[in-house]
Specification:
The complex is a heterodimer of chains A (769) and B (155). Chain A is of the alpha+beta class and 769 residues long. In chain A, a hairpin with a 2-residue loop joins strand 22 (570-573) and strand 23 (576-579). The longest helix of chain A has 28 residues, at 536-563. The two termini of chain A are 48 Å apart. Helices cover 33% and strands 16% of the residues of chain B. Chain B is globular and about 45 Å long. Chain B starts with a strand and ends with a helix. Classes of the chains: A alpha+beta (769), B alpha+beta (155). Chains A and B meet through helix 1 and helix 17 of A and helix 2, helix 3, helix 4 and helix 5 of B.
């Protein structure tokens, strides 16, 4: 942290406000909500990837003691409004539906909703439901989903092409891409899934007399949930309240409002009862949302010195059957950001999202991160091909700070970033040159395969899409001077109650302990963007600052009136509003607050009573952050096991609010990326049957697989008032290619190559031959 | 329904439960101790870890009736009565060993048992002892440091 930006609270590793309740078992997660008369739900799901429903037998389930309702599509679907999220109401997408109606489109698709007096009875009843499905050949292989003669996933749409964006290829670029100095590679990233430790869940109470619907939900976005539930249930949105107290991780999965939550809300509305649905882990793995699952054919055209002249990426993403939140994922950004932090005069692209009979794609920490994966893996492949060290290739091609702002070949303006600085810092911390020497020695003397890999990226934290770019903060000062801040966010574990209180305490010059942040409740906060897209520090942080500026100016005006001083001469320090340089001429912040509310005759003439402000911040189109990851591994030639030896992240998220939390976010993302590259793999067989339905099969990294992560910080303040940049997703963006490149580097010693993940022992052994 | 009786966090609890009711559900529903969390319900994630007669066990894999006559300690029973954090809980806070907090009760209980059995574990021992608990937020960085800190504080 540089001395210039570290404040009393902003820039300090303040211990988290959330921790005491979470550490003592007093968090309030959705499954902790118990309401009078609450009933429990479970879904009967399809065990067939594609087929016609020819019969559903529910009588035995209905007859079971304790069962209240057994609902099928005919009970719910005709009453449902659109299930599309607010952001995409006018965007074409998959034909979303509450329950499968007439056919099924992936294994895990909900067909029947059981409502019973206990979860145990609901699951007993689910066993008694018989669904007769005539199987049809499913569409599972995304690379053949567009072939002639392949079935369509959604008969309503007549095609498996969900979305496509293509740029024309200028003749000069075409000549380069076809030329002798063009290098082509194909990379495949396997399917994995976010896996928050708390599964999804909702409790919905509908009270027919008053027409009010109240929901408690595990959500990153209570206001979106409120809007979505209102649309689906038909309850007017001002009569819907969504609360999301503590949320046990989301990583994107809980940003939009998923199908099951909406279906349960609709059922509560129809039945007029209070329903609870808590997803189990098998459901979370097979039917929440999947991610990654991409293919890219990449071409780099180079000059004789290895400098980029032009690129092309042809990207295909597996959207699954019912993607949540976007047509597929973020294919457009994959194409637009493909050249990333490197200078490149020309580029073109095609990206396509394709439907398959698999679980729908959804957001997962950096939904467009395949641009970094494909590019950075391509960089290493290209450097190896031309006999140049990958670090040297990056040094030659990275946009130097002196050439900023730089316009990407796709037209995006890149500025206020430090990719070359983070590249050098990461290389220095991991002692790149020394590692190269050790690598050579280890192979020459012991035949051991060591490898080192880099991942360099820029992240846009875009504010372009409404309403994701905007947040509103309300800062209210009580008569005793204590402050409540309300935000439309939905913290899913990253400490918003702490970081936003730091910002407010800093801006108002008062004590951190005198600020409380209220969020995660649609009824007591203003409509907002929720939490996602690495936007909270930038967007919520700046909305807090804007509101504080108004409150602060008013408090100073009151103090100036009381002290008979000029407002410009006053400052707020440690809860005292004092004349600068004359601390004895002062009035306490708490006294100003008291007067503002309780002794209003002493206010300046004509001033409005009270001390509070509401302010909205609209983010600029881009708040670029950047980082360089460096990973060192050893590959066991006998077993194919990859061991991560060292891991370094040099990052630039502008002004850090809380370095402890920044490093925690980076670490979490990095380990998700290590897990995603080496262990986590959601597998379907050719018939679309999921094969990894428990934590015994879907392997998450544990304490014994992860290294101690080392950090370097570079601070280039963003051109917004707080200077913060997005950093929630970056750890998971830079790590997969860094790990992949390290393994590829080790394998290259013996001439082995890889082009797909996961890098499980069998894949690595296969590459080693 | 079967009668069951156990001491939970020092308090005698009586109940009548379905034989198939898990200890986790008994603690959460019958005792309203919702600090014990269910992350997988198949014994892998460790979020539901509690102490039964001093041993760390997965309460999703134990029926309530199997814990009859035992002394059970949950996350709610580790701190002081006025909300004071235990040494392990405080170390988790100091070292940023938690983010969303969902897996945290299982980790804190497991670490409490670990340090009881091995007050000065080496880093590798810590990592092996905790390899049966999954965390998705922290990358385990702060958790390993928290165990080291709690062990040092106890010395």
């Amino acid at each position: 942290m540089s001395a210039s930006t570290a404040g009393r609270f902003v820039g300090q590793s303040v211990k988290r406000r959330e921790d005491p309740r979470l550490l003592t078992g007093h968090g309030r997660y959705v499954d902790d909500v118990m309401r009078p008369g609450m009933l429990h739900c479970t879904f009967v799901r399809s065990d067939v990837a594609r087929g016609r429903i020819v019969g559903i037998e529910t009588e035995a389930a209905k007859d079971l003691d304790g069962v209240v309702a057994v609902l099928t599509a005919s009970d719910l679907n005709p009453h449902a409004g659109t299930m599309q999220p607010t952001m995409l109401l006018t965007t074409p997408g998959a034909p979303l539906r509450p329950l499968a109606d007439g056919d099924v489109r992936f294994v895990g698709e909900p067909i029947v909703l059981i409502v019973a007096e206990s979860r145990y009875v609901a699951e007993d009843a689910a066993e008694l439901v018989e669904v007769d499905i005539e199987s049809e050949p499913p569409v599972i292989d995304v690379e053949h989903a567009l072939d002639v003669g392949v079935a369509v996933v959604h008969p309503e749409l007549d095609t498996n092409l969900g979305a496509e964006m293509a740029f024309p290829i200028a003749p000069e670029l075409a000549a380069l891409l076809d030329g002798d100095n063009a290098i082509r590679r194909t990379f495949r990233q396997h399917r994995h899934t976010p896996v928050p430790m708390e599964t999804r869940g909702i409790v919905v109470e509908y009270e027919p007399a008053g027409g009010v619907l109240e929901a408690w939900m595990s959500t990153q976005n209570p206001h979106e949930a409120k809007q979505a539930i209102a649309r689906v249930t038909g309850v007017p949105s001002h009569l819907v309240r969504v609360q999301g107290h503590d949320v046990g991780g989301g990583f994107g999965q809980k940003f939009f409002t998923p199908r099951e939550e909406l279906t349960v809300a609709l059922a509560a509305r129809r039945l007029g009862r209070t329903l609870k649905w808590i997803e189990d882990r098998r459901e979370n793995l097979i039917a929440s949302n999947h991610a990654r699952a991409d293919v890219a054919h990449c071409t780099f055209a180079l000059d004789a010195d290895g400098r980029l002249l032009g690129t092309y990426i042809d990207h295909l993403e597996d959207a699954g059957s019912f993607p949540i939140g976007a047509t597929g994922g973020a294919g457009a950004l994959v194409g637009l950001l493909f050249t990333g932090p490197y200078k490149c005069p020309q580029a073109s692209l095609r990206t396509r999202a394709v439907w398959t009979n698999t679980c729908g794609r959804g957001a997962y920490r950096g939904p467009w991160m395949f641009e970094t994966v494909a590019r950075e893996q391509m960089v290493d492949a290209v450097a190896r091909e031309i006999g140049m060290d990958p670090l040297e290739w990056r040094r030659r091609n990275v946009v130097p700070t002196s050439e900023l702002p730089y316009t990407l070949p796709t037209g995006l303006p890149l500025d206020m970033v430090s990719p070359s600085e983070t590249l050098e810092q990461a290389a220095e911390i991991i002692a790149y040159d020394e590692f190269r020497a050790e690598q050579a020695r280890a192979f020459a003397e012991d035949g051991r395969l060591l490898g080192i890999g880099l991942g360099l990226y820029v992240e846009p934290s875009t504010g372009m899409m409404d309403p994701m770019g905007t947040e509103t903060a309300v800062v209210r000062v009580d008569p005793n001077g204590q402050v409540t801040v309300s935000l439309g966010t939905g913290s899913h574990g990253q400490g918003i109650e702490t970081t936003m209180a730091q910002v407010v305490a800093e801006e108002l010059g008062i004590d951190f302990d005198d600020v409380t942040v209220v969020q995660g409740d649609s009824a007591v906060t203003t409509f907002g963007r929720g939490t996602g897209g690495s936007g909270t520090a930038v967007i919520a942080g700046n909305s807090c600052r804007s509101a504080c500026a108004v409150v602060r100016a008013k408090a100073i005006e009151i103090a100036a009136h009381l002290l008979e001083a000029a407002p410009d001469d006053l400052d707020i320090v440690d809860g005292q509003i004092a004349v600068r340089g004359t601390p004895s001429r002062a009035v306490a912040w708490s006294e100003v607050a008291r007067i503002a509310h309780l002794e209003t005759a002493r206010l300046p003439e004509g001033m409005e009573v009270g001390l509070e402000a509401t302010a909205t911040f609209k983010a600029p189109p881009f708040s670029w952050s950047n980082a360089c990851h460096a990973c060192a591994v050893e590959v066991d030639r006998a077993t194919g096991v990859v061991t991560v030896l060292r891991y370094v992240v040099s990052e630039d998220c502008g002004v850090m609010i809380n370095p402890m939390i920044v490093e925690g976010q980076v670490a979490g993302g990095v380990v998700q990326g290590i897990g995603g590259t080496l262990y986590e793999h959601f597998v379907y067989d050719d018939e679309g049957n999921p094969l990894t339905t428990t934590f015994m099969d879907y392997l998450l990294p544990t304490t014994t697989e992860v290294p101690t992560i080392e950090y370097g910080h570079v601070e280039t303040p963003a051109p917004t008032p707080g200077g913060h940049k997005g950093m929630g997703e970056g750890g998971a963006i830079g790590s997969p290619p860094a790990v992949f490149n390290a393994v590829a580097d080790a394998l290259a010693i013996v001439g082995a190559t890889i082009d797909h993940t996961p890098l499980s022992p069998d894949v690595v052994l296969g590459a080693l031959g | 329904m079967l009668p069951v009786e156990m001491i939970v966090n020092g308090t005698r609890r009586n109940g009548r439960v379905d034989p198939r009711k898990t200890l986790a559900d008994f603690l959460r529903e019958d005792c309203t101790l919702t600090g014990t969390h269910l992350g997988c319900e198949h014994g892998v994630c460790g979020a539901c870890t509690v102490l039964v007669d001093g041993e760390a066990v997965r309460s999703c894999l134990l029926f309530a009736v199997q814990a009859g006559g035992s002394e059970v300690t949950t996350i709610e029973g580790l701190g002081g009565p006025d909300g004071e954090l235990s040494a392990v809980q405080d170390a988790f806070r100091q070292e940023h060993g938690l983010q969303c907090g969902f897996c945290t009760p299982g980790f804190v209980v497991s670490v409490t048992a670990l340090l009881h059995d091995n007050p000065a574990p080496a880093e590798q021992e810590i990592r092996e002892a905790l390899s049966g608990n999954l965390c998705r937020c922290t990358g385990y960085q702060g958790i390993v440091r928290a165990v080291q800190r709690a062990a040092e504080a106890a010395r």
